Amino acid sequence: MLPNPTLDQLQVFLTVAESGSFSAASRTLNRAQSVISYTIANLEAQLEVPLFERSGSRQPTLTDAGRAMLEDARRILSDLGVMRARVKGLKAGLEAEVAVAISVMVPTNATVDVLSEFRDRFPLVSLRLDTGELGTMMELVASGKSTIGIGGAVPNQDDSLVIERIGHSFMLPVASPNHPLAQIERPLTLTDVRDEVQLVVTDASGLTSGKDFNVLSYKIWHVSDIATKHQLMRGGLGWGGLPASLIVEDLQKGRLVRLALDAYDQSEYPIYAVHKLDNPRGPAAAWMIEAFGERLSKCPNKADFKAAVDMFHPDEKQLAAE
């Protein structure tokens, strides 16, 4: 017959081992010492191995089997504590899981900061994170696959969604420093860029189908995600727009250069928090939205961003031109 120790037996075993004696365990658990001894004896009978060496010492000493079982007892009782805490949180309205969809337009440092604090503040709440381009965030929320979404590009008003502006971002036209457009020492025109390959992200969600955002070239390479676009542009394979928050280090270190292209819309655009009207936010999701709002409200505007980059390249003509 397989051993079937009770949680109470394991708790008594752990208390005796940690307190160092049966008498100390009886005081800690507020039970008679005889009850403690009886419980340990029953546990040893269940496991069919001695847990304590009682002969030759006034204090019980763990046997080799006892030391091995001690780690198992700690783990089981720790898991029980986690379960109890989770049930307490659920009864108080805390979510078991928050599924969040975050647009690549959201600054990476803000995402890392928020999720790091989320982990510490809500250790018992599971997290499912999806990232995507353009309309992917909206599609994940609208379909119910994500509890909340953080990002821009709200292509259509949807009465089933609650949309709240919490920050801003902006795109910059850039290219590798060895790209032909980066060699032109004057503001660029549409004629300059028409015959150069422009890298464009294709929205897998289909929500923005038929809509072009800042597509100016006749030669277009479509890529599936912004990370691929970023790497291809650093490799000199084309030009295009990238979120300012993603490329600040590239600009500072000269891996990319900003193109002085007035035809490319570089205006700031809003970042939203989105959730379904019929799926109210729980405490953890509500906190996450507030935390993103706090950090995104502190994101630099275009003037601050340009000053930060110019500090590294004060003589760069592309950076100075507007």
Q: Which structural traits does this protein have?
A:
42% helix, D-Maltodextrin-Binding Protein, domain 2, disordered C terminus, 3-stranded antiparallel sheet, 3 domains, 322 residues, Arc Repressor Mutant, subunit A, alpha/beta
Summarize the helices and strands and which ones pair or pack:
Blueprint: H1 7-19, H2 22-29, H3 33-47, E1 52-53, E2 61-62, H4 64-91, E3 97-103, H5 108-121, E4 126-132, H6 136-142, E5 148-151, E6 161-169, E7 171-175, H7 190-194, E8 198-201, E9 220-223, H8 226-234, E10 240-243, H9 244-252, E11 257-258, E12 269-276, H10 283-296, H11 302-310, H12 317-320
Parallel strand pairs: 3-4, 3-5, 8-9
Antiparallel strand pairs: 1-2, 5-12, 6-12, 7-10, 7-11
Helix pairs in contact: 1-2, 1-3, 1-4, 2-3, 5-10, 9-11
Brief rundown of the structure:
Belongs to the LysR transcriptional regulatory family. The chain is α/β, with parallel strands linked by helices and 322 residues long.
